[in-house]
Amino acid sequence: MRIAILGSGSLGSLYAALLSQVDGVELLVHGRGSHGAHMAANGLQLAGLESFFLSHNDVFFSLEAVGIPPHSLGTIDFALLTGKAGQTPHLAGLAHQLLNDQGMVLCLSNGLGHAEQCIEILGPQRVFAATSTHGAWRPSAGCVHWAGKGQTVLGSLPGGPGELEAKLLLDVLSAAGLEPAWSSDGLAALWKKVLLNIAINPIAALAGVENGVLLRPDLFSAAFSTMLEGATVARMERVALPDDAELEQQLRQVLTATSTNICSMLQDIRAGRKTEISVLNQAIVVRGERAGIATPLNQMLVAMVNALHVE
Which residues, 6 or more positions from 193, have their beta carbon under 8 angstroms from its beta carbon? Predict the structure, then answer.
């Protein structure tokens, strides 16, 4: 099986490292910036829950500045999009060039709207819904730290491929230790992950703490209340979600499993990069306004995170 990891930041690098250990998998890892350049020149070091080095003998590294290698065009069975929110249309375009006639794509990026963008470019028959709750962060260029084991959920979208088409990939993800699961309701799966992101990322980022600190009663209350605002919006859009008690349990489980993780939004703020607040809490605010639902906590978090980037 030939798999492409497109947008190999923290999460993409983690998936690349673990998938590289599965027999019969050929990987193309496409990155950019100093991290991508370091991987292309020196390989990738995985630390944390597992530790090993990924060399050029294990995978093929490519760079955004150089472009996709021509010999890989039309050869990929599955493309995993793992870049930042604004990269999705570009990465979906790369996937369109790389995939073979039966190839399919899944986007593991945070936020709402990614699946729709992929469908516009690739067609619904090629796109799975997908989410990940694995915790990963980059202590330095060329190194990724696996901070917490989570799940990789694949799901079906209207007009999209089903569990039968996903079986080979689910088997490979399982062999890699990425804990895959299948959901017949891909939209609900995407929303469940978004609710976790809006609850965890901005609060951990603004407080400058690891995920586990949000288990403190005061911070957990703020995180869960933010989550419930998003759940109200999702239910108004007729998304089938668990009840509030189960959502609270899921939030505690993820915070516990990724207690030492530095969330992506905090990584972005520390690095002076643009955050993904626009596809997370801001998306909740916009959808809430459209439905006539007040979302004051999400609105406040958006304003506070954006204030960090005032020029």
Answer: 110, 131, 132, 133, 153
